[in-house]
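Practice set, problem 2.
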Amino acid sequence: MGTATFADGIEQSFDVDRGATVEVDAEGARIAVEGGADEVSVSITRGDDSRGEIEDDYDIDINASSTRVSVRVEKRRKLTNWLGGRSLSIRIDTPERVDLDLHTSGGTVHVEDIEGFVKAHTSGGSMHFDDINGDIDGETSGGSIEVKGTVANAELKTSGGAIRLDDIAGEVRAQTSGGKIELGRVGGDVVATTSGGSIDIESADGSVEAKTSGGGIRIAFTAQPTQGSELRTSGGTITVDLADGVGVDLDAKSSGGRLRASDDLDFRGDATKDSLRGEVNGGGPSLRVRASGGSIVLDKL
């Protein structure tokens, strides 16, 4: 173990076993974690305008064993970021194969190049995950969430921003109260809900439950789902693209727009001014579609 302490920061390093857990519980700190190192190195710094020793303002507790590194940071008294001072940053370099459990009450979270389970929570900032080979459980009360690269499964929740993901090999649960949801290729089932934006899924191989109160929905089914799907919006158009060989039992209704199934699709059923009901491409799992303020369009991918 190596330790260095200076006025504006603390640095410590530890040897850990493969698959160790790194925990952070901090008040008012930005957290950044990057894999690829030979050991776990913890660096805690603050803004250049701060005065006095860092431990005058914070209680800092760092404990380590071969299987776990724990970082606890608590404010000694009420602090502000006036003029940029007293802002705290926690930087951790780790081996790739670790599990993470990160909590901060007021800062951003950035994690990259990790092979393991990542759990992260912040009460006041955005979250960014890059090249995570494992599951992600992320929640923020005040910012957007972005995931780049392919992950196994993802459960993401924010009260104040957009959610964007690239490729997900497994399942996705995404919920936001104030933004859009954009997903790339999803190999498993999807549950996506937003109260204030659109939902866009570039490629879905499983079932989809998508609901929004303030935007449109666009989804491409690129593989035959094995379970039913439901799409619902109160304020936009729903567009569904079906790849060759993808069949569904359609039940679609719109109260404020047109309904159209492309001639390139094999639709056999009943069509009225405000509903479409029948088999598409020979039928399959149910696809229930409801639009209260827009059109419903089915196209061939």
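Problem 2, part (b): a different protein.
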Amino acid sequence: MPSLHVVFAASVLSVASFSMSACSHESGSSAASAPRLTSAVQPAQPVYDVPVDGLPILGKATAPVTLVEFADYECPFCQRGEGTMKQLRAKYGDQVRFAFAVHPLPFHPQARPAALAVLAADHQGKFAPMHEALLQRATGDDGKPLTDAEIEAAAREAGLSLDTLAADEQAAQPVLARADALASRLNVRGTPTVFVNGKVIVGAMPLSTYEQLIDSELAAARALIASGVRPEDVYNRTIANGAATVAESEGEGDCAPGLQDDCAKK
């Protein structure tokens, strides 16, 4: 990546069963029969072009680090990963902003209605409470999907206007289509997939994995700011020459078509 950044000296690679930390798009082989190399943080990681225009965002535009999460509301790994996201928000405060790219997977029947509901909530200025309410109802150990009644209950809990919810969901269709197109262009093949200033972390990884990368990107951002780049321009500068598509070996999360049984049971 041409922009200033700190290169990781240590590789954090783990060989594990594919179903242990994410849901993925791939069909065919089961998780149990397909152990694979799952990337967390790699040395000299490539940077990807991940625009956040139109995405729900928590945090300030001046935050030197931007985290973009592709997630599915019926993916249990996304539900578990939210605890890590909360810890990061608490630790880093205004230093990190969080953008959310809804990525409903085709084998989760209620993921798309949930995605439209949370985008409608964002339109009403209530993304955060709806996001929280939906994740609390996400697929649990029983493997049962969300229901329309649960999505409506989440909307009530979040304080959404139910009178305009249907219209707001309809208006959210193009927003969801753009998120789908972004995921396709980046070759995001499962959830959760997270980009930290354009560098990818695949699967529900430990807090320390995120901390290492965020701390590195904060140092890089401070160097850019010291060179005269405005804080609100750091992210766009960082991803400006980023790659358009994630490499095949990096792009799969733990919930995926073909792994749906394992995804639902974890």
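Answer key, part (b): The domain at 12-265 is CATH 3.40.30.10 (Glutaredoxin). The mean pLDDT is 82.
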